[in-house]
Design a protein that fits this description.
Elements: E1 6-10, H1 17-27, E2 31-33, E3 36-38, E4 52-54, H2 57-65, E5 69-76, E6 79-84, H3 85-93, E7 97-101, H4 104-114, E8 118-124, H5 128-138, H6 143-157, E9 165-168, H7 172-187
Parallel strand pairs: 1-7, 1-8, 2-7, 3-4, 8-9
Antiparallel strand pairs: 3-6, 5-6
Helix pairs in contact: 1-7, 5-6
Bound molecules: guanosine-5'-diphosphate and adenosine-5'-diphosphate.
The site of adenosine-5'-diphosphate (ADP) has 14 residues, from helix 1, helix 5 and helix 7.
Pfam families: Guanylate_kin
Function: Essential for recycling GMP and indirectly, cGMP.
EC number: 2.7.4.8
């Protein structure tokens, strides 16, 4: 059986990567989502084991000590996020490809580990102003968390050139179409 490949979507918070990754998962075959571990609080509508594995900081640290992660990061102050080795192995050995929604540093680390078997896609918002509007309209973050995410966005956008592909998410329908085209081409 052909082993699956890895497709990593990354972007500043609010750029739309979760929306685009969900669309790809709903409309394309043979790709599965790499469910990450996180210590952040569950948002309304999120499901443990589907959106994330929600862990306590102690549970997360135990997994670090047991060397269970391909990569992990302290993404925003006090919050850990990480990709489990077992998650990637399970999906690829089934013959499926893995799609990730992870931060910029994590994405570039995965690329370094998997090379040509991995495609990195940076989702670019049309502007920082639009990014802010999208984050406010998503209505998931407190004032303090919103600021953390916007502060980090500028630094993340400087890393865009290190990705294989930069995808503009302006008109949503166009970006969804482009997302599926990029993935289909890579998996050919
Ligand atoms: N390095 C790394 N980053 C992750 C992982 N899972 C999620 N992230 C990133 O952590 C950041 C925060 O994610 P989240 O709290 O869901 O907020 P959102 O990006 O605003 O929807 C985003 O950039 C995610 O892509 C992971 O396993 N590893
Ligand atoms: N092209 C777009 N135009 C307008 N709103 C969008 C677009 N893409 C995503 N959104 C909205 O912006 C918000 C942030 O998108 P989300 O996918 O959660 O971003 P991320 O996962 O990158 O943080 C959501 O409310 C989403 O519905």
């Amino acid at each position: 059986m052909k082993k699956g490949k890895l497709i990593v979507f990354s972007a500043p918070s609010g750029a739309g990567k979760t929306t685009l990754v969900k669309h790809a998962l709903e409309t394309l075959e043979n790709i599965k989502f790499s469910v990450s571990c996180t210590t952040r609080e569950k948002r309304e509508g999120e499901v443990d084991g589907k959106d994330y594995y929600f862990l306590t900081p102690d549970e997360f640290k135990a997994k670090i000590a047991d060397d269970k992660f391909v990569e992990y990061e302290e993404v925003y102050r006090d919050n850990f996020y990480g990709t489990l080795k077992a998650e990637v192995d399970r999906i690829t050995t089934e013959g499926n490809s893995v799609i990730f929604d992870i931060d910029v540093i994590g994405a570039l680390n995965i690329k370094r580990l998997y090379g040509d078997e991995c495609l990195t896609v940076f989702v670019n918002p049309p502007s920082l102003e639009t990014l802010k509007e999208r984050l406010i309209s998503r209505n998931t973050e407190s004032e303090d968390k919103l600021k953390q995410r916007l502060d980090k966005a500028g630094i993340e956008m400087e890393k865009a050139a290190e990705f294989d592909i930069i995808l503009l998410n302006d008109d949503l329908a166009t970006a969804k179409e482009k997302t599926n085209e990029i993935i289909t081409d890579f998996l050919k």
